[in-house]
Amino acid sequence: MKSKKREPAQFDVDALRAALDGERIARGLTWKDVSAESGVSASTLTRLSQGKRPDVDSLTALTHWMGVSADRFMGVPQKGFGGASPLAQISSILRDDPNLNKDAATALDQLIKSTYARLRSNR
């Protein structure tokens, strides 16, 4: 029996950068603050914004700072909510956000869902 050859996982620098930016915004920080809190140099953060991959120590520090597994950025689909769709995951996360009241979470949820429906590709 022949085994199927797997495609190697590709690191998604853009996803890491977007997650970092989201966490930075959620915490009300500047990029300088991110550097100080995470222990990752500002020059490394600048290189990330240019699409460069971080070294292992920087990746570890940044994912630890965000509280997210590095697996999220390895190009392998994640199902963190038992197979729930990304929209279901986002809805749940928004409702759990202590920075949002119920009305704000609902408004963001509706905005994201309508934007998703407008922009999603029909493969």
Care to describe what's here?
It is a single chain. Helix 5 (86-96) packs antiparallel against helix 6. 58% of the residues lie in helices and 0% in strands. The chain is an all-alpha fold and 123 residues long. It has two domains: 13-73, lambda repressor-like DNA-binding domains (434 Repressor (Amino-terminal Domain)); 86-119, no CATH class. The protein starts with 12 loop residues before the first helix and ends with a helix.
Structural class: mainly alpha
Strand element count: 0
User: Radius of gyration in whole Å, from Cα?
Assistant: 17 Å
Q: In the CATH hierarchy, what is the class of the largest domain?
A: Mainly Alpha
CATH superfamily caption of the largest domain: lambda repressor-like DNA-binding domains
What is the total domain count?
A: 2
* CATH fold-type name of the largest domain: 434 Repressor (Amino-terminal Domain)
Provide the residue-averaged pLDDT. 85
Describe the largest sheet.
none
Percent in helix: 55-70%
Annotation keywords:
single chain, 123 residues, mainly alpha, 2 domains, 58% helix, 0% strand
Task: State the gist of this model.
It is built from six helices and no strands. The chain is mainly alpha-helical and 123 residues long.
Set out the fold topology.
Layout: H1 13-27, H2 31-38, H3 42-49, H4 56-66, H5 86-96, H6 102-119
